[in-house]
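Budget justification aside, the reviewers requested a transparent look at the raw inputs and outputs of the sequence design task funded under Objective 1. We therefore reproduce one unedited record. The lines immediately below are the structure tokens for a 178-residue chain.
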């Protein structure tokens, strides 16, 4: 066990020493954010998808924590504006840093639903496709964002996109992804 801890610390130290500030994406001593995206890609390709239809108005269909944990969600999008898009809602018991991964390029926004009304949540990091391919070694994920989920429920808006079905993974960023 001590050898594994030492090796993990050594890898983190080497990672910090060899990267510039833009690519230092180790998350709180856990996996790098790209490793989390790579882990999400495993769930993206397995056959355990949960089907949901998004809605054109907030909050959209509800997804509880147990239904999305380490699971792909196949979302059917309604026509919305110039393409397809919609809302889905997860929580209210999901909090902390989360990564949403989508199999297509799409704009993503997150809103928190609390007793005070709907509040936009700042996207902490948006991952570019080429960075995902180069660093996470996957092309199954085309869009990924990091944000802090809050109690009260979190509303994800997908789109507009040019297709009616997308696949998403909602992953916690603060647990091991081995």
């Amino acid at each position: 066990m001590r050898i594994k801890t030492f090796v993990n610390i050594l890898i983190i130290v080497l990672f910090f020493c060899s990267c510039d500030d833009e690519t230092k994406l180790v998350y709180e001593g856990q996996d790098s954010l790209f490793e989390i995206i790579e882990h999400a890609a495993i769930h993206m390709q397995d056959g355990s998808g949960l089907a949901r239809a998004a809605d054109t108005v907030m909050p959209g269909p509800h997804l509880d924590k147990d239904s999305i944990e380490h699971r792909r969600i196949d979302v059917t999008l309604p026509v919305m504006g110039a393409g397809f898009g919609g809302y889905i809602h997860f929580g209210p018991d999901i909090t902390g840093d989360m990564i949403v991964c989508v199999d297509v390029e799409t704009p993503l926004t997150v809103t928190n639903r609390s007793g005070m009304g709907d509040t936009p949540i700042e996207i902490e990091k948006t991952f570019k496709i080429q960075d995902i391919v180069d660093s996470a070694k996957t092309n199954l994920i085309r869009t990924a964002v990091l944000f802090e989920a809050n109690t009260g429920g979190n509303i994800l808006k997908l789109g507009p996109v040019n297709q009616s079905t997308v696949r998403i993974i909602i992953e916690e960023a603060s647990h091991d992804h081995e």
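Helices lie at 2-18, 33-45, 65-68, 129-136. The domain at 32-172 is CATH 2.60.120 (Jelly Rolls). Computational costs for records of this kind are itemized in the attached budget.
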